[in-house]
Amino acid sequence: MDPRPAQKQFEVQMPSGGTGRLTQIVSVAGNRLRITHVSGWLRLPSPQTAQISIGTAAYDISSILEATGAHFFPTIPQPDGTIVFGQSTNIPTKGRSVELTVTRSDTDGTLEGQITIVGELWEAPSP
């Protein structure tokens, strides 16, 4: 069966004084997802920095065991205090879920933004 286009958009909100890490789970149960693009923007107080990563499950290259991988996306600071990022990828996932994580360097001030994951969704093969 041919892949179907898939997209998930996240609104990111981290209040001042809260945790410096936010994780969102994207369920792909019963399917396989190939992530083809990740992009977005975050606004946070200067001089804070942020990291954006996606955690996926796949088969380990050297064995038949499942492994979890983290994929990080480079950010570009803008003059207005916003950071932007966008990267084409080819990240196949084994299924179940994908984990989007935003981590910031400090918890002072509010972080807000938006992140979009785009890909292709395939039906998992029948057992």
Q: What is shown here, in short?
A:
This protein is 0% helix and 65% strand.
How is the topology of this model organized?
Blueprint: E1 4-14, E2 21-27, E3 31-43, E4 50-59, E5 66-73, E6 76-77, E7 82-92, E8 97-104, E9 111-123
Antiparallel strand pairs: 1-9, 2-8, 3-7, 3-9, 4-5, 4-8, 6-7
Gyration radius, to the nearest Å? 16 Å
- Structural classification: mainly beta
Report the β-strand fraction as a percent range.
over 45%
Query: What's the rounded overall pLDDT mean?
Result: 87
> Per the principal axes of the C-alpha atoms, what is the gross shape?
elongated
Numbering strands along the chain, what is their spatial order in the largest sheet?
1-9-3-7-6
Number of continuous helical runs: 0
- Which range best describes the helical content: under 10%, 10-25%, 25-40%, 40-55%, 55-70% or over 70%? under 10%
Order of helices and strands: EEEEEEEEE
Task: Report the count of strand segments.
Answer: 9
Unreliable stretches covering 5 or more consecutive residues:
none
The separation of the N and C termini measures 16 Å
